[in-house]
Design brief:
It comes from Pedobacter steynii. The protein is α/β, with parallel strands linked by helices. It has 11 helices and 12 strands.
Protein backbone atom coordinates (compact mmCIF):
# COMPACT_ATOMS: atom_id res chain seq x y z
CA UNK A 1 0.00 0.00 0.00
CA UNK A 2 1.35 3.46 -0.88
CA UNK A 3 1.91 6.12 1.78
CA UNK A 4 -1.05 8.12 0.44
CA UNK A 5 -3.29 5.05 0.51
CA UNK A 6 -2.23 4.30 4.09
CA UNK A 7 -3.02 7.86 5.10
CA UNK A 8 -6.43 7.84 3.44
CA UNK A 9 -7.30 4.46 4.93
CA UNK A 10 -6.41 5.67 8.40
CA UNK A 11 -8.48 8.85 8.18
CA UNK A 12 -11.48 6.89 6.87
CA UNK A 13 -11.23 4.43 9.74
CA UNK A 14 -11.12 7.13 12.43
CA UNK A 15 -13.93 9.66 12.07
CA UNK A 16 -13.81 12.75 14.23
CA UNK A 17 -15.75 12.35 17.49
CA UNK A 18 -17.07 14.95 19.91
CA UNK A 19 -15.61 12.90 22.75
CA UNK A 20 -11.99 13.72 23.48
CA UNK A 21 -9.65 10.93 24.46
CA UNK A 22 -8.00 11.75 27.81
CA UNK A 23 -4.30 12.55 27.90
CA UNK A 24 -1.87 10.93 30.34
CA UNK A 25 1.55 11.51 31.82
CA UNK A 26 2.95 8.38 33.44
CA UNK A 27 5.75 8.37 35.97
CA UNK A 28 7.32 5.13 34.76
CA UNK A 29 10.16 4.72 37.25
CA UNK A 30 12.26 1.56 37.25
CA UNK A 31 12.06 -0.82 34.27
CA UNK A 32 11.17 -3.50 36.84
CA UNK A 33 7.72 -1.96 37.06
CA UNK A 34 7.17 -3.53 33.66
CA UNK A 35 7.13 -7.05 35.11
CA UNK A 36 6.12 -6.43 38.72
CA UNK A 37 2.58 -6.34 40.05
CA UNK A 38 2.85 -3.40 42.43
CA UNK A 39 0.93 -0.28 43.39
CA UNK A 40 2.13 1.61 40.32
CA UNK A 41 1.51 -1.06 37.69
CA UNK A 42 -1.89 -1.83 39.26
CA UNK A 43 -2.93 1.78 38.74
CA UNK A 44 -1.75 1.68 35.12
CA UNK A 45 -4.01 -1.33 34.56
CA UNK A 46 -6.91 0.40 36.30
CA UNK A 47 -6.41 3.57 34.25
CA UNK A 48 -6.79 1.58 31.03
CA UNK A 49 -10.21 0.42 32.27
CA UNK A 50 -11.23 3.94 33.27
CA UNK A 51 -10.71 5.51 29.85
CA UNK A 52 -12.10 4.50 26.43
CA UNK A 53 -10.15 1.88 24.51
CA UNK A 54 -7.95 3.95 22.22
CA UNK A 55 -7.73 3.52 18.47
CA UNK A 56 -3.96 3.86 18.89
CA UNK A 57 -1.40 5.15 21.38
CA UNK A 58 1.33 7.70 20.72
CA UNK A 59 3.99 7.64 23.44
CA UNK A 60 6.41 10.48 24.08
CA UNK A 61 9.09 8.68 26.07
CA UNK A 62 12.04 10.08 27.98
CA UNK A 63 14.15 7.40 26.35
CA UNK A 64 13.88 8.54 22.73
CA UNK A 65 15.86 11.77 22.76
CA UNK A 66 16.89 12.84 19.25
CA UNK A 67 18.05 15.72 17.11
CA UNK A 68 14.88 16.74 15.32
CA UNK A 69 11.47 15.11 15.71
CA UNK A 70 10.74 11.60 14.51
CA UNK A 71 7.83 9.18 14.70
CA UNK A 72 7.90 5.41 14.36
CA UNK A 73 6.28 4.39 11.09
CA UNK A 74 6.77 0.63 10.85
CA UNK A 75 4.05 -2.03 10.87
CA UNK A 76 5.58 -3.95 13.78
CA UNK A 77 7.87 -1.99 16.13
CA UNK A 78 10.44 -4.05 18.01
CA UNK A 79 10.69 -4.19 21.80
CA UNK A 80 13.80 -2.31 22.92
CA UNK A 81 15.59 -3.32 26.12
CA UNK A 82 17.42 -0.05 26.69
CA UNK A 83 18.86 -0.73 30.14
CA UNK A 84 21.42 -2.89 31.90
CA UNK A 85 21.91 -4.72 35.17
CA UNK A 86 18.41 -6.13 35.49
CA UNK A 87 17.18 -9.75 35.70
CA UNK A 88 16.96 -11.88 32.58
CA UNK A 89 13.17 -11.98 32.95
CA UNK A 90 13.03 -8.30 32.04
CA UNK A 91 15.15 -8.79 28.92
CA UNK A 92 12.91 -11.69 27.88
CA UNK A 93 9.84 -9.46 27.66
CA UNK A 94 8.44 -8.77 24.21
CA UNK A 95 5.55 -6.39 23.66
CA UNK A 96 4.35 -7.19 20.13
CA UNK A 97 1.90 -4.33 19.62
CA UNK A 98 1.45 -3.37 15.97
CA UNK A 99 2.43 0.01 14.62
CA UNK A 100 0.24 2.26 12.47
CA UNK A 101 2.07 3.81 9.51
CA UNK A 102 -1.05 5.72 8.48
CA UNK A 103 -1.17 7.43 11.85
CA UNK A 104 2.51 8.29 11.56
CA UNK A 105 1.77 10.05 8.27
CA UNK A 106 -1.20 11.89 9.72
CA UNK A 107 0.85 13.02 12.71
CA UNK A 108 3.60 14.26 10.40
CA UNK A 109 0.98 16.24 8.48
CA UNK A 110 -0.47 17.79 11.65
CA UNK A 111 2.88 19.03 12.96
CA UNK A 112 3.90 22.28 11.27
CA UNK A 113 6.57 23.42 13.73
CA UNK A 114 8.94 20.60 12.75
CA UNK A 115 9.74 18.48 9.73
CA UNK A 116 8.88 15.12 11.28
CA UNK A 117 10.93 12.17 10.14
CA UNK A 118 9.27 8.78 9.58
CA UNK A 119 11.41 6.31 11.49
CA UNK A 120 11.73 2.60 10.69
CA UNK A 121 14.57 1.72 13.07
CA UNK A 122 13.56 2.55 16.65
CA UNK A 123 10.64 0.63 18.15
CA UNK A 124 9.15 0.67 21.66
CA UNK A 125 11.59 1.53 24.46
CA UNK A 126 10.98 0.82 28.12
CA UNK A 127 9.32 4.19 28.65
CA UNK A 128 6.54 2.81 26.47
CA UNK A 129 6.24 -0.94 26.91
CA UNK A 130 6.76 -1.20 30.66
CA UNK A 131 3.60 0.87 31.11
CA UNK A 132 1.57 -0.39 28.16
CA UNK A 133 1.98 -4.09 28.87
CA UNK A 134 0.02 -3.48 32.10
CA UNK A 135 -2.56 -1.24 30.40
CA UNK A 136 -3.11 -3.37 27.31
CA UNK A 137 -1.60 -6.79 28.04
CA UNK A 138 -2.94 -8.34 24.82
CA UNK A 139 -0.84 -5.84 22.81
CA UNK A 140 -3.76 -5.36 20.43
CA UNK A 141 -3.76 -1.54 20.40
CA UNK A 142 -1.37 0.00 17.82
CA UNK A 143 1.52 1.92 19.41
CA UNK A 144 3.80 4.60 17.98
CA UNK A 145 6.51 6.70 19.59
CA UNK A 146 7.18 10.38 18.96
CA UNK A 147 10.73 11.43 19.78
CA UNK A 148 11.84 14.41 21.86
CA UNK A 149 14.10 16.93 20.10
CA UNK A 150 16.93 17.53 22.58
CA UNK A 151 17.88 20.82 20.89
CA UNK A 152 14.60 22.47 21.94
CA UNK A 153 13.36 23.86 25.25
CA UNK A 154 10.26 23.01 27.29
CA UNK A 155 8.15 25.75 25.73
CA UNK A 156 8.82 24.39 22.25
CA UNK A 157 7.58 20.92 23.22
CA UNK A 158 4.53 22.37 25.00
CA UNK A 159 3.57 24.28 21.86
CA UNK A 160 4.28 21.34 19.54
CA UNK A 161 1.87 19.22 21.57
CA UNK A 162 -1.00 21.54 20.69
CA UNK A 163 -0.61 20.53 17.06
CA UNK A 164 -1.59 16.96 18.02
CA UNK A 165 -4.92 18.00 19.55
CA UNK A 166 -7.04 16.78 16.64
CA UNK A 167 -5.83 13.22 17.24
CA UNK A 168 -7.69 13.22 20.55
CA UNK A 169 -10.93 13.52 18.56
CA UNK A 170 -9.97 10.35 16.71
CA UNK A 171 -9.56 8.24 19.82
CA UNK A 172 -5.76 8.39 19.93
CA UNK A 173 -4.27 8.23 23.43
CA UNK A 174 -1.28 10.54 23.73
CA UNK A 175 0.86 9.43 26.63
CA UNK A 176 3.91 11.17 28.05
CA UNK A 177 6.24 8.83 29.93
CA UNK A 178 9.01 10.03 32.25
CA UNK A 179 9.29 11.25 35.83
CA UNK A 180 8.68 14.78 37.07
CA UNK A 181 11.38 14.52 39.74
CA UNK A 182 14.22 12.37 38.42
CA UNK A 183 17.74 12.50 39.81
CA UNK A 184 19.28 9.03 39.66
CA UNK A 185 22.67 10.22 40.91
CA UNK A 186 21.11 11.10 44.25
CA UNK A 187 19.00 7.96 44.63
CA UNK A 188 18.95 6.35 48.08
CA UNK A 189 18.19 2.65 47.66
CA UNK A 190 17.24 2.35 51.33
CA UNK A 191 14.25 4.56 50.45
CA UNK A 192 13.30 2.69 47.29
CA UNK A 193 9.95 1.54 48.67
CA UNK A 194 8.91 5.08 49.51
CA UNK A 195 10.21 8.40 50.70
CA UNK A 196 11.72 11.58 49.33
CA UNK A 197 14.38 14.05 50.35
CA UNK A 198 13.05 17.34 51.69
CA UNK A 199 13.99 19.20 48.53
CA UNK A 200 12.30 16.56 46.34
CA UNK A 201 9.06 16.74 48.32
CA UNK A 202 9.18 20.54 48.32
CA UNK A 203 9.53 20.88 44.55
CA UNK A 204 7.11 18.03 43.91
CA UNK A 205 4.46 19.93 45.89
CA UNK A 206 5.25 23.06 43.88
CA UNK A 207 5.00 21.22 40.57
CA UNK A 208 1.70 19.60 41.57
CA UNK A 209 0.20 22.93 42.65
CA UNK A 210 1.12 24.47 39.30
CA UNK A 211 -0.27 21.49 37.37
CA UNK A 212 -3.56 21.36 39.25
CA UNK A 213 -4.09 25.12 38.91
CA UNK A 214 -3.23 25.28 35.21
CA UNK A 215 -0.21 27.50 35.77
CA UNK A 216 1.83 26.12 32.92
CA UNK A 217 4.13 29.08 32.34
CA UNK A 218 6.34 28.43 35.41
CA UNK A 219 6.46 24.75 34.50
CA UNK A 220 7.88 25.65 31.12
CA UNK A 221 10.38 27.95 32.84
CA UNK A 222 11.25 25.39 35.54
CA UNK A 223 14.86 26.61 35.69
CA UNK A 224 13.55 29.74 37.47
CA UNK A 225 11.90 27.79 40.29
CA UNK A 226 15.02 27.54 42.42
CA UNK A 227 17.68 25.06 43.43
CA UNK A 228 15.21 22.27 44.20
CA UNK A 229 13.90 22.36 40.62
CA UNK A 230 17.43 22.06 39.26
CA UNK A 231 18.08 19.08 41.53
CA UNK A 232 14.80 17.52 40.40
CA UNK A 233 15.59 18.04 36.71
CA UNK A 234 19.38 17.78 36.28
CA UNK A 235 18.71 16.79 32.66
CA UNK A 236 15.36 17.42 30.95
CA UNK A 237 14.51 14.17 29.15
CA UNK A 238 12.28 12.73 31.90
CA UNK A 239 10.52 16.06 32.45
CA UNK A 240 9.76 17.06 28.86
CA UNK A 241 7.10 14.36 28.26
CA UNK A 242 5.00 16.24 30.84
CA UNK A 243 5.02 19.25 28.51
CA UNK A 244 3.22 17.21 25.85
CA UNK A 245 0.52 16.17 28.29
CA UNK A 246 -0.06 19.70 29.60
CA UNK A 247 0.08 21.25 26.14
CA UNK A 248 -2.87 19.12 25.06
CA UNK A 249 -5.20 20.34 27.81
CA UNK A 250 -8.09 22.64 26.97
CA UNK A 251 -9.53 25.25 29.35
CA UNK A 252 -12.55 23.16 30.35
CA UNK A 253 -10.83 19.91 31.27
CA UNK A 254 -10.20 18.60 34.76
CA UNK A 255 -6.77 17.47 35.93
CA UNK A 256 -6.15 14.69 38.42
CA UNK A 257 -3.06 13.02 39.87
CA UNK A 258 -2.38 9.37 40.60
CA UNK A 259 0.60 7.23 41.70
CA UNK A 260 1.60 10.33 43.62
CA UNK A 261 4.52 8.93 45.59
CA UNK A 262 8.22 9.66 46.03
CA UNK A 263 10.64 6.73 45.97
CA UNK A 264 14.38 6.43 46.44
CA UNK A 265 14.65 9.94 47.83
CA UNK A 266 15.03 11.72 44.49
CA UNK A 267 12.37 10.32 42.16
CA UNK A 268 8.59 10.77 42.03
CA UNK A 269 6.10 8.45 40.35
CA UNK A 270 3.51 11.24 40.20
CA UNK A 271 1.30 10.83 37.16
CA UNK A 272 -1.27 13.10 35.52
CA UNK A 273 -4.61 12.54 33.84
CA UNK A 274 -6.31 15.23 31.77
CA UNK A 275 -9.93 14.69 30.73
Amino acid sequence: MSNLSQFNAFTRDLPVSEQLMPVLFMGHGSPMNGIEDNEFSAKWATMAKDIPVPTAVIVISAHWFTRGTHITAMDFPKTIHDFGGFPKALFDVAYPAPGKPGLALETKKLIHSADVGLDHDWGLDHGAWTVLRHMYPEASVPVLQLSIDYTKDARYHYELAKELYELRRKGVLILGSGNIVHNLRMMNWEMINGGGYDWALEISDKFKDLILNDHHQPLMDYQTLGKAALLAIPTPEHYLPLMYTLGLKNDKEQVSLFNDKAVGGSLTMTSVRIG
